[in-house]
UniProtKB/TrEMBL annotation:
<dbReference type="InterPro" id="IPR018223">
    <property type="entry name" value="Arginosuc_synth_CS"/>
</dbReference>
<feature type="binding site">
    <location>
        <position position="177"/>
    </location>
    <ligand>
        <name>L-citrulline</name>
    </ligand>
</feature>
<feature type="binding site">
    <location>
        <position position="186"/>
    </location>
    <ligand>
        <name>L-citrulline</name>
    </ligand>
</feature>
<dbReference type="Pfam" id="PF20979">
    <property type="entry name" value="Arginosuc_syn_C"/>
</dbReference>
<dbReference type="InterPro" id="IPR023434">
    <property type="entry name" value="Arginosuc_synth_type_1_subfam"/>
</dbReference>
<feature type="binding site">
    <location>
        <position position="129"/>
    </location>
    <ligand>
        <name>L-citrulline</name>
    </ligand>
</feature>
<feature type="domain" description="Arginosuccinate synthase-like N-terminal">
    <location>
        <begin position="6"/>
        <end position="167"/>
    </location>
</feature>
<dbReference type="GO" id="GO:0000050">
    <property type="term" value="P:urea cycle"/>
</dbReference>
<dbReference type="GO" id="GO:0000053">
    <property type="term" value="P:argininosuccinate metabolic process"/>
</dbReference>
<keyword id="KW-0963">Cytoplasm</keyword>
<feature type="binding site">
    <location>
        <begin position="10"/>
        <end position="18"/>
    </location>
    <ligand>
        <name>ATP</name>
    </ligand>
</feature>
<feature type="binding site">
    <location>
        <position position="125"/>
    </location>
    <ligand>
        <name>L-citrulline</name>
    </ligand>
</feature>
<feature type="binding site">
    <location>
        <position position="125"/>
    </location>
    <ligand>
        <name>L-aspartate</name>
    </ligand>
</feature>
<dbReference type="Pfam" id="PF00764">
    <property type="entry name" value="Arginosuc_synth"/>
</dbReference>
<keyword id="KW-0547">Nucleotide-binding</keyword>
<dbReference type="GO" id="GO:0005524">
    <property type="term" value="F:ATP binding"/>
</dbReference>
<dbReference type="InterPro" id="IPR024074">
    <property type="entry name" value="AS_cat/multimer_dom_body"/>
</dbReference>
Length: 400
């Protein structure tokens, strides 16, 4: 792998990405390291992170607020696809990676860098998401991954950083590896590496323990326009505000926790804990609204598309031709997905108790069993005869 003179480094302010700065310069001969920290609504104060990058040897420290794009262009696209990896994980962390990759490529082009870099290790999914996304956006850019190659333990990385003036973490490091953005949190490592061990309550930040949730149910209404959530309890909200408020309301009722063993792309099974209150409820609401607005064949066919779509996101193929083609199909299905879904939130449960839409295909005078029934019952006998004809012919031929 060829080395580079000027590099844009994806920067979080943690040990690994901080150590990447002197390591790239000292060990790999990089002349200039520009760091890029993406604000995706993680709630961290990014000014100290910006200063730490400069202290660690960066020539320039960029901070980009991409929260709105993160929700509108990435989260809502996945929502329209009801994207749940392995039917459980709403891809809150995975969705951030193609956006960060895009910001890296844009910064590299702006500053004339010949490479971009990240601090991913060789065991995770993120290395794939970054490398493949960057290659799709600019195949001429080199991608450097020092932490994948340096072979240092965390203690050795801290010691290496201290040699170049990077202070060791002040307090004892958490045993958990946590990633956070506006969509939620992912928690792994520590005691969680044993799939039999119950997670301690201390790991959660967005969702209350059931014992601490309100003793009365709360009702909320989420409004959609063409598959996109636009209102909460009748009030129009920006995408970021809607996610933020919904996270708080839903998390207050202990809703949004996922504890799963997932299949990583690199072949490893990993026990993961996620907190994604807003995203899980939005997918539940969106899927329910589709049941009113989509025809049966579109609805059934879309289920298979959704599974493929979630795998593409998880596996780092956001910018792939197949993903673009599926987007076109999904966007077409969303033209009539407008309406309101009503939830009852109580003790860890988000229960849909109502839905309505001007585009609804639900027809009361066909569905009713009352006096207003307009369904032609006499037509059923002929329909059943034709529908069952292949089965009847097969049975006459093969059964004694």
């Amino acid at each position: 792998m060829g080395r580079a003179n000027k590099v844009v480094l994806a920067y979080s302010g943690g040990v690994d990405t901080s150590v990447c700065i002197p390591y790239l310069k000292k060990e790999w001969g990089v002349q200039e390291v520009i760091t890029l920290a993406a604000d995706l609504g993680q709630g961290d104060e990014l000014e100290p992170i910006q200063k730490k990058a400069l202290t660690s040897g960066a020539s320039e420290s960029l901070v980009v607020d991409a929260t709105e794009s993160f929700v509108k262009d990435y989260a809502f696209a996945a929502l329209k696809a009801n994207a749940l990896y392995e039917n459980r994980y709403p891809l809150s962390t995975a969705l951030a990676r193609p956006l960060i990759a895009k910001l890296l490529v844009e910064a590299a082009e702006k500053y004339g860098a010949d490479a971009v870099a990240h601090g991913c290790t060789g065991k995770g999914n993120d290395q794939v998401r970054f490398d493949v996304s960057i290659a799709a956006l600019n195949p001429n850019l080199k991608v450097l991954a020092p932490a994948r190659e340096w072979g240092m333990s965390r203690e050795e990385a801290i010691a290496y950083g201290e040699r170049f003036g990077i202070p060791a973490p002040v307090k004892k490091s958490s045993p958990y590896s946590i990633d956070r953005n506006l969509l939620g949190r992912s928690i792994e490592a520590g005691s969680l590496e044993d799939p039999w061990t119950e997670p301690l309550e201390e790991i959660y930040a967005l969702t209350k323990a059931i014992a601490d949730t309100p003793n009365e149910p709360e009702y909320i209404e989420i409004g959609f326009e063409r598959g996109i959530p636009t209102t909460l309890n009748g009030a129009s909200l920006s995408p970021v505000a809607l996610i933020s408020q919904l996270n708080e309301i839903v998390g207050n009722h202990g809703i949004g926790r996922i504890d799963m063993v997932e299949n990583r792309l690199v072949g490893i099974k990993s026990r993961e804990i996620y907190e994604t209150p807003a995203l899980l409820v939005l997918i539940q609401a969106h899927r329910d609204l589709e049941s009113l607005a989509l025809t049966a064949d579109v609805s059934h066919y879309k289920r298979g598309v959704e599974e493929t779509y979630s795998q593409l996101i998880y596996n780092g193929l956001w910018y792939s031709p197949l993903k673009a083609a599926l987007d076109a199909f999904i966007d077409q299905t969303q033209e009539q997905v407008s309406g309101v879904v009503r939830f009852k939130l109580f003790k860890g449960n988000a229960i849909i108790v109502g839905r309505k839409s001007d585009q609804s295909l639900y027809t009361p005078d066909l569905a009713t069993y009352g006096a207003d029934d307009k369904f032609d019952h006499k037509a059923a006998e002929g329909f059943i005869y034709v529908w069952g004809l292949p089965t009847r012919v097969w049975s006459q031929k093969h059964r004694v």
